[in-house]
Amino acid sequence: MKSLKFFSFAMLSLGVIFLFASPNNAGNTDKFSAMDYTRPLEHQELEEYVGPSTCAECHEDAIDEIMNSSHYTWAGKFKNGGKYSKLQMTAVPINWLGVLNKGKYTHGGCGFCHIGGGPMPVDPAKATDEDKDKLDCLICHATKYDTKVRFPKQVNGKWILPQDRSLEAARSVGKPTQNNCLRCHYVALWNYKRGADMKDDIHYRSNMSCTKCHRVENHRFPGSGPTITPEVSRRVQCTDCHAQAPHSNETLNKHVRVDCRTCHVVSAGGVFYKNATKNGIYIEEKGIYKAEEKTGIIRPVYFWYDGVSRGVVPKGSIDDPSSKIQPFKKYMGVAPMDTQTGDFPWLKLGVFAKTGDIEKAIRAGVNASGRPYSGSWKPKKYDVYFQLSHGVTVERSLQCNDCHSPSGVMDFKALGYTEEKVKELTQKNSP
């Protein structure tokens, strides 16, 4: 009797399978074949998406969390009136959002990466329902997102940033993927400037999500460098995943004052030089002008860094036990400097992009910012050092003689070692 019951159940199960697989049920099979089993199934059952309020039906605290996060407030970027950039010559409020060349689909402004739907961020404590409804949840969470929809346009004289709020996009929502993060964090308008190529990183090539290291809590992300304002106090450490002594070679494990990245991030790239004191160079592909710049792969420079201090030059010392030798990308800039005040005027970058005229960009920036300007300027060089945390490699990591030889990459004297110690450290095979 038990065998008969089992046989009947098995035949019923096969019948259900054949029912869904038959041509008469093509709609059902299409539905199941369209399922993305890497994304939450409940999202794929949504029948409508009207914006953040749809998300809040299940994720009750999400909107308030986002409104108080760096991805909305841009808190570090609005200090000193908006002069957040370590690249002298620019400020956020006067370069917020716009279109540089509609025919070439070239957007302009910092706000293109902001998740607030167009307007600059407001005080989260004073945010209205209208402010909250402008949030773009899907740009960070949807794998199927038509980024071409997200192009600035003016409505009633105000710039807005449309969103893809399609049902297809909403149904693809889940935890942020690599591509979600890189929609904003890979490049801005031109080549990347901050450090190394993230796509050349062993973690990226292993298909790891960015949130594997930047472990988010309540929409707040750990991870920052000396030129970036931290959102939370918790730092991202290699030892969050890797052992304190990861090498089979004990000599390597004894390099406790050398940060892991020093050996495992061996190159920097993207833009490493920009001269914003000359008229622009026209770029046919984008239909706009850009400043003279140099790009390519360069070797890192090395500093002691205490892991906490902020600034364009890393702070640390050989005498500070908390400091480690770390790699940085040297970015060299030239910008207009007021001959009387010594300040850098804020340029209206959209004017420069459209006209290539540095004088017009300065004048427009002065008018937009209201900051004092003597009327005359001269070129001023400046350097910024970007911490290298991405671009991690194993196969191309530094070997002993890359540092410990007379022609090694490390300037031990500049790092504060005595002449006697430098001589010892630069002997081949000294470790």
Outline the fold blueprint.
Blueprint: H1 2-21, H2 26-33, H3 52-56, H4 62-67, H5 70-73, E1 98-101, E2 106-108, H6 129-133, H7 138-141, E3 153-155, E4 158-160, H8 167-171, H9 178-185, H10 202-205, H11 250-253, H12 260-264, E5 271-275, E6 281-283, E7 288-290, E8 292-295, E9 301-305, E10 324-338, H13 349-355, H14 358-369, E11 377-387, H15 400-403, H16 419-425
Parallel strand pairs: 5-10
Antiparallel strand pairs: 1-2, 3-4, 5-8, 6-7, 9-10, 10-11
Helix pairs in contact: 13-14
Describe the structure.
The protein has 431 residues and is of the alpha+beta class. The chain folds into 2 domains: 1-34; 35-398, no CATH class. 25% of the residues lie in helices and 14% in strands. It has 16 helices and 11 strands. The chain has helices spanning 2-21, 26-33, 52-56, 62-67, 70-73, 129-133, 138-141, 167-171, 178-185, 202-205, 250-253, 260-264, 349-355, 358-369, 400-403, 419-425; strands at 98-101, 106-108, 153-155, 158-160, 271-275, 281-283, 288-290, 292-295, 301-305, 324-338, 377-387. Strands 5, 8, 9, 10 and 11 form a 5-stranded mixed beta sheet that branches. A hairpin with a 4-residue loop joins strand 1 and strand 2 (106-108). Helix 13 (349-355) packs antiparallel against helix 14. The protein is globular and about 70 Å long. The model is unreliable at 1-33 (pLDDT under 50).
The count of strands amounts to 11
- The N- to C-terminal Cα distance equals 77 Å
The profile of the biggest β sheet is:
5 strands, mixed
Class per helix and strand makeup: alpha+beta
Taken together, the total number of domains comes to 2
Along the chain, the helix and strand elements come as HHHHHEEHHEEHHHHHEEEEEEHHEHH
Indicate the low-confidence ranges by residue numbers: 1-33
Q: How much of the residues is beta strand, in percent?
A: 5-15%
Report the C-alpha radius of gyration, rounded.
26 Å
Mean pLDDT across all amino acids: 88
Shape: globular
Proportion of residues in helical segments: 25-40%
Tally of alpha and pi helices? 16
